[in-house]
Amino acid sequence: MARHAEGTAADLELSAVLHALGDPVRLALVRDMAEHGESQCSPEGLQVPRSTLSNHWRILREAGITRTRRVGKARMMSLRRDDLEARFPGLLSVVLAGRDR
Amino acid sequence: MARHAEGTAADLELSAVLHALGDPVRLALVRDMAEHGESQCSPEGLQVPRSTLSNHWRILREAGITRTRRVGKARMMSLRRDDLEARFPGLLSVVLAGRDR
């Protein structure tokens, strides 16, 4: 995996992480990963065009929130829980506990 | 104060709150209010044009993060700590504890 491209826990910037989390679709992707461990590019139940989703995944990845695992031609995304917890303790838990109505 | 325009704690939307916090200048404004209670439109030490700051204050206010108190011609902004804590317990503490490097 391209560890270098994703940076280390210390590279995660709070404002970039909050910005990445500050969107309803990206929050839904984060909740999906939190629940299922890994998520496909287009999780079931999300009515969002694939090109739009690609952009959301890019923002999550560049903020350091997700890592990507290639399985053949597919990509599986997961949360960088340990890195996020090390850099911003409690943030992910607080966000996952908060529900948009 | 225009309580109606700011909505109640239940109206705060997580994604809007995270988006509003997801900017280095707005984080600096939030930290300034957390430290000093109230903040003027242009806090000392922030090298940001006043028009840009006005936009940042608007985003914070519309997300429900701040309230505004008029003092003569001046406006003083403060954090809606209780409302934020009621709606998203722990969020503000986690954000204030996280430092951009």
Automatic annotation (TrEMBL), chains A, B:
Residues 16-93 form the HTH arsR-type domain. SUPFAM superfamilies: Winged helix' DNA-binding domain. Gene3D superfamilies: Winged helix-like DNA-binding domain superfamily/Winged helix DNA-binding domain. This is Helix-turn-helix transcriptional regulator.
